[in-house]
Specification:
The complex is a heterodimer of chains A (874) and B (110). Chain A has 874 residues and is α+β, with helices and mostly antiparallel strands. Helices cover 54% and strands 15% of the residues of chain A. In chain A, strands 1, 2, 3, 4, 5, 6, 7, 8, 9, 10, 11, 12, 13 and 14 form a 14-stranded mixed beta sheet that branches. In chain A, strands 17, 18, 19, 20, 21, 22, 23 and 24 form an eight-stranded mixed beta sheet that branches. In chain A, strands 16-25-15-26 form a four-stranded antiparallel beta sheet. In chain A, strand 10 and strand 11 form a beta hairpin. In chain A, helix 4 packs across helix 13, helix 17 packs antiparallel against helix 24 and helix 17 crosses helix 27. Chain A starts with a helix and ends with a helix. About 3% of the residues of chain A have low confidence. Chain B has one domain: Orthogonal Bundle (Arc Repressor Mutant, subunit A), CATH 1.10.10.10. Helices cover 55% and strands 9% of the residues of chain B. In chain B, helix 1 packs across helix 4. Chain B starts with 5 loop residues before the first helix and ends with a helix. Classes of the chains: A alpha+beta (874), B mainly alpha (110).
Chain lengths: 874, 110
């Protein structure tokens, strides 16, 4: 029974591959050979040989059939080509729309791909983690110096630990050449073992073992040494420390969130005054490589235990953050809140949206032509085409178009890649997307596009009954009209989402930019001070204030446009026991408030006439805070300037004159400053306390007078070079820094603007195709209307009304979606616009105008038709 | 002329040689005898099928029963096109060999 069934299945396969006669010949031969084998070699062997023979027979026939199938496909491709050539206009709209959509999609995929590839180049990437600590709502990647070695010793899961401390900006001098290096890091030797930053020269095992050894990246080395071999040469750091170059590192790839140009051993930090044995000194990033990445939780628990042992009260909670998640989920720079993943999701969605619009375009044009194609389908079926053949033909057609569009899109991408790089600040090259993996993904996207957009004609049109469609003009009826309308509404809705979203981003960007920072940031420059220039700050200031080209000079401890240090545990008169705000702080020169023109709300600014204001004693060194030895603090009249935010938190009326103790010092609040931004403008203004201590100034702030800035700068430069001949004069405008803070938003806006433009353009292309088709279909109706007395303008109105109604519907559908997405995006900003109708209104106006311009000519042309022409033939 | 593959050429020639007795089994056995190789069925029937599709050979259903007592056996003959092709091959082979100096198989000589 089963054998019979099997035989019949075999028979079926054979008869499907060859005709009946051939099948009979083959079957006869196989049976003959089997019976001969049975006599010569026995039953079992005969059966086995029969099976082999069967497969060996069917195999080649199958291949033959497959080749035949390909020929069939080739035929449908040929027909598709003819069809495309016949309708050049449609084909052009189709291919243009698709290729633009695909190119936009490819760009966004490249961008997303690049973001996702961040840090993945490290061999050990999955096992590398950063130790972050959380305390209350604060999260930081700054850990104590002794943590790394302690982890290596007492946490068995940790294979290696490496500490990375930033040296800030240093001056590097080689002979006559001197320049600032801002990406200088002090690291443990294990850094080179954990991360895959290969050395081009030098031994990674020993390159950082000497106390004054130094590694440069390739391009930095070239900057100082040109073509000479830098190995073994001596360089001077900050004019005081001589280092020997022991290694040249390959440049850090652009998709690395860890960046550096210069590495020195961590021990160097001790030399420049950091207490690197103290747990209170929190200034390093600690990286660990686990033996097994599944042990994250147990490792984390042990690190937690370690912290609890060290800090009995208020122990921070450590978390291990995976290296590969840092770029997307946590930002590399501690203190920066923005999460890349949001942008990645946004762009992914955008890519899909643009592709969707392009696909809909394609489908729409296909349905629009369906009544014409229906005749073709009918005729083909009459002469013997099966539905299968027609499906093949339509799919062949759409695949051909997408293949064409895909090649065009690739060309567009390679042509516009430089502009895209400029827009996004990425360093993508042709080579970066001509990788097999990418190409497969792209080709997959293209094939998917072809299949999706070809489905409608392939599955719907091929089902037409020949008798019906050949008898007379096809009444597609309301059903297909509905599909078409739904498609075009979807298309416009998608375009409006992108467009209105763009408007929201632009509004927010404009809002952020035009919001004041809280002081006069124009004509303000700042300079980083190192070594000699730091100790010589007073000299510099004394010279500069006598210069008519300088309107004010001050200095401070923190980076002027982004304060980083904060501390909790402050105490003040009338503090509720549960109050423990985290307060940002900085040492400033007494002239800070007047130089920046910060408004004082209550009390007075620091003044040289109140020597008690000075707080030099409370600062031991840069790390401050927990470095303060118990009881070393004395000056009870240390003056504090606080901002309104801190005053608000302290509560209880005018804070001036109240005692405040923080950073281990007792002091008095002398004044309250109006809130101003001391971090990025996206961030909420946090509580801030300033104290006067000119000796801890690390940045000089100079206000130039309005008017001739270049003359003023030249004058400052002359003064600087006279006092510090060994240090290059390099300055930054406050404005530049604030501009840079909006880089992410500005890029997003620029990209969105393009995406929105393309979305609208492609949607309008679809509308154009549809409009010209509908106009053609309705010529007779219009002719009759006109004979009966309709005016051209009346008809124009009638035709436009229908199109514009779709656009309005698209807007209505898009509005809530935009409201949701944009609302979520805006919530990431402490200072944000409130979503109002303006973005939506603007989007409506833009889409309506674009739609009207697109269809206007066509519509008017149709409306002006001479009725005598179009109704005479039937 | 259309260049046929070698096995197609052999098959065409064999069918011609077998005249009225060319059917599946006899064709395969004749080919095996002439070439001295045991051919897998697929290597015979796939080209046979192709040539039939392209109209070089055709089936000539015979009267009577096959040996196994089933359906009538299928005999193959050359179509005019197949015959023309075979003639072309013959004349081309003759032309190719014309004027070729005496050729000896050295391995045989030794």
């Amino acid at each position: 029974m089963t054998a019979e069934k099997r035989a019949s299945a075999r028979k079926d396969l054979l008869s499907r591959l060859v005709d009946a006669e051939m099948a009979a010949s083959i079957r006869e031969d196989l049976a003959y050979q089997q019976s001969r084998d049975r006599i010569e070699k026995g039953a079992l062997s005969a059966t086995l040989r029969h099976m082999v023979r069967l497969f060996a027979t069917i195999g080649p026939l199958l291949i033959f059939a497959a080749i035949g199938g390909l020929t069939m496909f080739g035929i449908s491709i040929r027909m598709a080509r003819r069809n495309l050539a016949k309708h050049k206009g449609f084909s052009l709209i189709n291919i243009a729309g698709l290729s633009i959509g695909m190119a936009a999609c490819l760009f966004l995929v490249l961008w997303v791909q690049d973001e996702l590839s961040f840090d993945a180049f490290h061999e050990n990437a999955p096992e590398i983690f950063r130790v972050d600590v959380t305390q209350g709502n604060n999260r930081s990647a700054m850990t104590p110096y002794p943590l790394g070695p302690a982890l290596e010793q007492s946490v068995p899961e940790v294979e290696h630990a490496a500490r990375v401390a930033s040296l800030g900006t240093v001056v590097l001098r080689v002979g006559e050449k001197a320049s600032y290096e801002s990406a200088a890091r002090a690291v443990d030797p294990s850094f080179l073992r954990i991360f895959s930053f290969p050395l081009l020269q030098g031994n990674p095992a020993s390159a950082l073992s000497g106390p004054h050894s130094l590694i440069l990246t390739e391009s930095t080395a070239r900057k100082y040494f040109g073509a000479e071999n830098p190995m073994g040469r001596t360089v001077t750091l900050d004019g005081r420390f001589d280092f020997m170059i022991t290694g040249i590192m390959k440049d850090v790839p652009s998709n690395s969130s860890i960046r550096h140009d210069l590495l020195v051993p961590l021990e160097f930090m001790r030399e420049i005054g950091w207490y690197i044995d103290r747990w209170g000194s929190e200034n390093v990033t600690t990286w660990v490589k686990l033996g097994d990445r599944n042990q994250v939780n147990s490792a984390q628990d042990k690190i937690s235990g370690l912290y609890r042992d060290r800090f009995q009260t208020r122990a921070p909670e450590p978390i291990l953050v995976g290296l590969t998640t840092i770029n997307l989920y946590a930002s590399a720079q501690p203190g920066q809140a923005a999460q890349k993943i949001q942008t990645v999701r946004l762009f992914g969605g955008l890519a899909a949206a643009i592709l969707l619009i392009a696909c809909i375009n394609f489908m729409n044009l296909a349905t629009a032509r369906s009544s014409k194609r229906a005749l073709e389908v009918g005729l083909r079926k009459t002469v013997g085409a099966r539905r299968r053949d027609l499906i093949g033909q339509f799919y062949g057609e759409s695949l051909l178009i997408t293949a064409f569009a895909f090649l065009l899109a690739l060309a567009l991408v390679s042509v516009f890649l430089p502009s895209f790089n400029a827009l996004t600040g990425k360093a993508l090259t042709i080579r970066s997307f001509l990788r097999v993996g990418y190409l497969l993904v792209f080709a997959g996207i293209a094939a998917l596009t072809g299949l999706i957009s070809g489905s409608y004609p392939a599955l719907f049109l091929s089902s037409f009954l020949p008798a019906k469609v050949l008898k007379g003009p096809l009444r597609t009826g309301t059903k297909s009209g509905l599909v078409r309308k739904a498609l075009i509404v979807t298309q416009f809705a998608t375009a409006v989402v992108v467009l209105a979203g763009t408007f929201v981003v632009l509004q927010q960007l404009h809002f952020l930019r035009s919001r004041g920072v809280g002081y006069d940031k124009d004509q303000l420059i700042y300079l980083g001070l190192q070594g000699e220039t730091r100790s010589g700050f007073q000299v510099l200031r004394d010279r500069l204030i006598r210069d008519a080209n300088v309107a004010g000079v001050s200095g401070l401890f923190q980076r002027p446009t982004s304060f980083g240090s904060r501390i909790d545990g402050a105490d003040w008169e009338g503090r509720a026991p549960d109050q423990n705000p985290t307060i940002f702080y900085s040492a400033v020169d007494p002239h800070y408030v007047e130089t920046l023109k910060i408004d004082i709300v209550e009390g007075r600014p620091f003044s040289e006439t109140f020597p008690g204001d000075y707080a030099d004693e409370i600062l031991i060194n840069g790390s401050m805070a927990r470095n303060v030895p118990e009881g070393a603090v004395a000056n009870p009249t240390t003056g504090f300037l606080i901002n309104e935010e801190l005053a608000r938190i302290m509560g209880g009326g005018n804070p001036v004159g109240k005692r405040l103790s923080m950073l281990g010092a007792q002091g008095v609040i002398v004044g309250v400053m109006k809130n101003f931004h001391f971090q990025s403008l996206q961030q909420k203004i946090e509580p801030l306390a300033l104290f006067a201590s000119p000796t801890h100034v690390r940045f000089a702030v100079i206000r130039l007078p309005k008017g001739n800035i270049s003359q003023a700068l030249a004058s400052v430069r002359t003064t600087w070079e006279r006092i510090f001949p060994d240090f290059p004069f390099e300055y930054r405008f406050y404005d530049e820094d604030f501009g840079r803070m909006f880089q992410a938003e500005a890029r997003l806006a620029a990209l969105l603007r393009w995406a929105a433009g393309l979305a609208i353009f492609v949607a309008c292309l679809g509308l154009l195709g549809l409009a010209s088709f509908l106009a053609e279909q309705r010529t007779k109706e219009i002719g009759i209307r006109k004979t009966l007395g309709a005016t051209s303008s009346g008809i124009t109105l009638m035709l436009s009304k229908e199109f514009l109604r779709w656009v309005v519907w698209g807007n209505l559908i898009a509005a809530p979606i935009v409201y949701l997405i944009a609302g979520r995006w805006l919530r990431g900003y402490a200072y944000r616009i409130s979503l109002d109708a303006s973005a939506f209104a603007l989007a409506l106006v833009v889409t309506l105008t674009a739609a009207f311009l697109t269809i206007g000519r066509q519509t008017i042309k149709t409306a002006r038709l001479n009725p005598a022409r179009c109704i005479k033939d039937e | 002329m259309n260049f046929l593959t070698r096995i197609e050429e052999i098959l065409l020639l064999t069918i011609w040689k077998l005249r009225d007795n060319a059917y599946g089994i006899s064709i395969r056995e004749q080919v095996e005898k002439d070439t001295g190789i045991s051919w897998l069925s697929g290597a015979i029937y796939a080209p046979l099928n192709r040539m039939k599709k392209h109209g070089y050979i055709a089936a000539k259903p015979a009267k009577g029963q096959s040996e196994s007592g089933g359906r009538p056996r299928v005999y193959y003959i050359l179509t005019p096109r197949g015959r023309k092709e075979l003639c072309a091959i013959q004349s081309m082979t003759r032309d190719l060999w014309a004027g070729v100096p005496q050729l000896r198989n050295e391995a045989e000589e030794r």
